[in-house]
């Protein structure tokens, strides 16, 4: 079969168009995967920030109530109330970042329940100081259950933090792979275009 130069050029041009179209599809697919991974990275970073807030605010609340129970000074209660509001905001923020992850939502609900129990206990400490005096408040703070409750909350937050760090690492790796696939796709399609 004897092809004229025009037919050969037309055939090569069509082949180049097919290669470019295939390359565009591969690149678009990789871009979509990278965008998804990058979006997940941003969500995980916000989740880690919220977990840090949660840990900080719970410790601040505990310190304020303990300060009040030890001294009876009312000025400890205003920062306690601010920390309590910040803690509620942090829990709500984490719940918003859970998305469709039922397991994470369940564990966040467990943390929220534990914090609610802890806040009730702290309110009881405040009432004890006001109604029965500093010694009653100190006994309430020093109770073994009190230490166990806070340790449990910190353990739950630490477990969530570790899980979020692990998921963040997975998404960072996926984003890097998408970048590498995109580079290789561009290189391959550029080489194929030059060859044709």
3D structure, described in words:
By secondary structure, the chain is mainly α. The chain contains five helices and no strands. It is rod-shaped and about 105 Å long.
Secondary structure: elements and pairs:
Layout: H1 5-71, H2 77-97, H3 102-132, H4 134-142, H5 144-195
Helix pairs in contact: 1-2, 1-3, 1-4, 1-5, 2-3, 3-4, 3-5
Q: Notable features of this structure?
A:
mainly alpha, 5 helices, single chain, 196 residues, rod-shaped
How would you state the average pLDDT, rounded? 80
Q: Spell the H/E element sequence.
A: HHHHH
Radius of gyration: 29 Å
- Look at the helices and sheets and give the structural class: mainly alpha
Give the overall silhouette. Answer: rod-shaped
Q: Describe the sheet with the most strands.
A: none
The helix content, as a percent range, equals over 70%
């Amino acid at each position: 079969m004897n092809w004229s130069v025009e037919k050969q050029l037309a055939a090569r041009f069509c082949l180049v168009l097919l290669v470019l179209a295939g390359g565009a599809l591969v690149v678009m697919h990789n871009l979509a995967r990278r965008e998804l991974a990058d979006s997940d990275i941003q969500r995980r970073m916000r989740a880690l920030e919220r977990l840090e807030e949660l840990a900080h605010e719970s410790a601040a609340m505990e310190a304020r109530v303990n300060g009040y129970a030890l001294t009876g000074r009312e000025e400890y209660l205003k920062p306690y109330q601010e920390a309590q509001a910040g803690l509620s905001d942090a829990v709500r923020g984490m719940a918003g970042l859970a998305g469709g992850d039922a397991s994470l939502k369940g564990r966040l609900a467990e943390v929220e329940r534990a914090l609610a129990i802890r806040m009730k206990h702290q309110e009881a400490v405040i009432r004890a100081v006001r109604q029965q005096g500093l010694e009653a408040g100190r006994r309430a703070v020093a109770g073994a259950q009190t230490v166990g409750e806070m340790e449990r909350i910190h353990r739950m937050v630490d477990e969530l933090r570790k899980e979020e760090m692990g998921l963040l690492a997975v998404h960072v790796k996926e984003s890097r792979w998408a970048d590498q696939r995109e580079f290789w796709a561009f290189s391959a399609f550029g080489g194929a275009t030059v060859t044709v």
